[in-house]
Amino acid sequence: MSNGTGKPIRLSTHARGYLARRGFTEAEVEETIRTSPWQPAQRGRMEAFKDYPYHNLWNGTFYATKRVRPVFVEEPTEIVVVTVYTYFF
After folding, report:
1. DSSP string over 57-89
2. What is the DSSP string of 3-64?
3. What are phi and psi of 24, to 5 degrees?
4. CB-based contacts of 65, cutoff 8 Å, min separation 6
5. Is 81 left (phi over 0), alpha (psi -120 to 50) or beta?
6. β-pairing verdict for 9-11 and 46-47
7. Which of 76, 86, 85, 82 is nearest to 12 (CA)?
8. Phi/psi at 13 (nearest 5 deg)?
9. Which segments of the chain have a pLDDT < 50?
10. Cβ–Cβ under 8 Å, residues 3 and 34
11. ∠20-78-27 over CA atoms, to 5°?
12. Alpha-carbon span 89 to 65, nearest angstrom
């Protein structure tokens, strides 16, 4: 299942609080939700993930790839991002 609609995507206060700490951007979250397959997540939520070239240091270690995994809810008029996980490898 993937998003075929043009609904606006909004980061919750919780998700926005992790922008710098987890190293993702709003643009990456939106691109991931709009272009990657959706999968069921816990508590009736959905999730998607996408790998991005990184080639940089994160917490003192060099990583080539960053995976962005937003967890979100599709509401009638918008998509609300509950939280976002990032993985570096």
Report:
1. EETTEEEEEEEEEEEEEE-SS-EEEEEEEEEE-
2. --S---EEE-HHHHTTHHHHT--HHHHHHHHHHS--EE-GGG-EE--EEEEEEEEETTEEEE
3. -125, 165
4. 51, 52, 53, 54, 88, 89
5. beta
6. unpaired
7. 82
8. -60, -40
9. none
10. yes
11. 35
12. 5
pLDDT tens across 7-31, in order? 999 999 999 999 999 999 999 999 9
Q: What is the pLDDT of residue 25?
A: 97
State the pLDDT at residue 41: 97
**Which single residue is written with the structure tokens 């003192």?**
60
Q: For the chain, how many residues are written?
A: 89
* Residue found under tokens 């999730």: 47
- CA–CA separation, 71 vs 41, rounded Å? 7
Q: At residue 57, what is the residue type?
A: L
